[in-house]
Amino acid sequence: MKTSKLLALFTVAAAISFNAQAADRVGDFNLIDNTGKAHQLSKYAFNKAVVIVSQQAGCTANQENIARYKQLRTNFDHRGVSFLMINSSVEDERDDIRAEEAVWNYDFPIMDDDGQLVADALGIDKAGQVVVVDPVRMNVLYRGPMPAQWARHELGTVLEAVLADGADSRQMETVNVDFEAAEGCALEFPMRDRYQAEAPDYETEVAPILIERCVGCHVEGGIGPFAMNSHMMIQGWSPMIKEVLMTKRMPPMQVDPTVRTWINAGNMPVEERQILVHWINAGSPRN
Ligand code: HEC
To answer: What is 11-177's CATH number?
Structure first.
């Protein structure tokens, strides 16, 4: 009896793994939701925390937890916490997201992470996962399930900690609570898996995209502030290049293709954005 209780305690302790020091960082990003509205993480900096729920059409954990999500929001949105959902499913198109919303009435903006790059950045690996982010310091503070009673759970502890007077998330750690994906909540990451096994090839995959989408302006004497004229140059600018791709600042003038099309739009296909970001994540290798 005693041993089994102790064992249970150890299991709980093992499930809550703390980072050695600082919290995981996330870069800024910009995603469009089911209604066509853009959400940029840094623009939530007027709030102390953003709660992001990973969503997928048909995920039973999402469907069963709707009341809990709304209750959490009722308790925290007037205290400086914003609430968003993110759909990072390769299965779901924007129409699937809208259809799921029409049936279940989540009543949260559902961001369409069509390239799965934000899931990667936030450390999301399944639907049903809840992530708490500090939008000022860009720290991930909690990653885990939606508990039945958040007030008695790490999720509540983390939210209270970041809302406390004088709280500084730089002194906090990422609290990870492991849990199994419920039925219909597993997420596949085919592109990430592929490019983690082998980084995109600089000459045949990366450079052609830059030439087509960027070099027209980013050339010696061009209007872009630096010339993409060597691997060294591109590697050096990689952190900035990743940021402008994640926030969709570059190429300039992007519009949501599911809302309207525009002849001058600078949109690039999601596959190209994935190639560039996964290449940068791999350290921008020469080959
Ligand atoms: C239509 C011209 C044009 C195209 C195409 C273009 N850029 Fe730019 N880029 C600019 C200009 C102008 C600036 C400086 C003003 C700004 O930051 O908006 C800039 C700035 C940047 C910066 C620096 C951002 C900063 O905050 O200093 C990066 C990085 C960048 N571009 C990357 C890219 C990448 C990657 C592509 C291709 C996917 C691209 N650009 C395509 C014109 C362009």
So the answer is: 3.40.30.10
